[in-house]
Amino acid sequence: MKVVETSLPGCVVVEPAVFGDDRGFFFETWNADRYGQQGLPTKFVQSNVSSSSRGVLRGLHYQWPNPQGKLVSVLEGEVYDVAVDIRHGSPTFGQWAAVVLSAENKRQFWIPEGFAHGFAVLSERAIFSYLCTAQYDKAADAGVRWNDPAIGIDWPVSAPLLSAKDEAAPLLADIAPERLPVYVP
User: How many Cα atoms are found within 13 Å in the side-chain-facing hemisphere of 115?
Assistant: First the structure.
């Protein structure tokens, strides 16, 4: 497995070792020892799967308090996956990193606690997998507007299909500091 740093400290792309032949392929999607040796989490408490069609954009989501770290991947299709640093006081506050995840490239994206997360579907359909370090907490559920101009994400879709919740999410500048994760150096 290869771990590739992104422009956001802590957010990394995992490229698994894939073993294939004319019958198909095999790879580990998570191994506590191997991932722990790379500084990645060794405990997940919730696993989620979503299915979305082309043009759907989900995000930018986070939880505060009770933040979740997420190890995400695509089981079918292709997405443009984004993490945004929303930790109050962080030197990279409001900055974003993106990676294309697909069933073909088998990459994973680790998004630590304190970052908002979202993705846009590039294929006809995508089945998306999340391993989470904390359970979903409805009272802590929050979001940042997907097209916040101060963040400036270069999404590959111009008119995405959004949920009502995502469409109404606030700009990052309009979120009270106590509703944001805190940067700890």
Answer: 26
